[in-house]
Amino acid sequence: MFAVRVHQKIELAVDIVSLILVPEDGRILPPHAAGAHIDLQLPNCMLRQYSLCRAYTGGQDLEIAILRDPAGRGGSACAHRDVEVGSRLLVGAPRNLFPLVPAARSVLLAGGIGITPILAMAEELHGQGREFELHYCARSADRAAYRDELGRAAFAERVRLHFDDAPASPRFDAARALGAPAADRHLYVCGPEGFIRHVLQVAADLGWDPACIHFEHFSGAAAPAPDDGAFELRLARRGIRVPVPVGVSAAQALLDHGIEIALSCEQGVCGACVLPVLEGIPEHRDVFLSSAEKAANRCFTPCCSRAATPHLLIDL
Ligand code: FES
After folding, report:
1. Which candidate in 191, 237, 249, 268 could, as Cys together with 114 as Cys, close a disulfide (CB 3.0–4.6 Å)?
2. Which of 263, 285, 287, 305 to mutate for ligand 1's pocket (most ligand atoms within 8 Å of CB)?
3. Residue whose CB lies within 8 A of the most ligand 1 atoms, among 73, 249, 301, 306, for a mutation test
4. Keywords for this entry (predicted)?
5. Tens digits of residue pLDDT in 274-316
């Protein structure tokens, strides 16, 4: 990670602020493609992932936007409350788990704060002269970050805004926005889980090829359930067994036994913690692994997933 200073903090919309971060040591950042995100360590030491809002060809600024989530675990509230212009924060190098693929035409769908990577994608596609259409859904206009900017953008005629509380605003019709599937049309969707689920269902009903569908959640794993059972992790290389009690994540159980593992989002979103599974069946609760990876049961995310068998043998 490297240190950045907050160069600018702007209220973009109700409960949404943008931060422009500049490396403290003056370093020039390598180019990153649209869809990239950074890990950001907040003043309360929480580590969170935020999509970068700009298509970027290299330079110093990193722009993110953060929605305050009153039901969250304190990361967004800390960002809104404690981060100010001049604050020093630590960030990780940009990583991209949501890249654009070359296609003749793209459909970009954003729900709420899901606009952040989608805005960068629109800028990148426009810069490349590619065909696309962007649909942006929000509860109300005053909760839609970058709304005015999208209205002024060089690609404004490609943007459709859908606000729940505005009678004059066209209602979002996922089937119409997606249209008929084609091998050279790709779909990118980012937003709340319910929004993504709805869009994916409509895409499946229309016959879209899963290979043409790309999505990114910004909140992840299902909360622990009261009927979660205990299970055991067997560490193949160390030859030890680690019980995972009810109410404790597999990751926490490993850490409690002094076993270091990589952790970042702790919500099943980022994939930082993925461990190889040699035996047993995980109960996957993340949104990082693909359906095929989950069905293969050869890896799991210990930050949130559990086991459907009494033990999992992991390559650790
Ligand atoms: S820490 Fe991010 S998926 Fe587990």
Report:
1. 191
2. 263
3. 301
4. 2Fe-2S, Flavoprotein, FMN, Iron, Iron-sulfur, Metal-binding, Oxidoreductase
5. 999 999 999 998 878 887 899 999 999 999 999 999 999 999 9
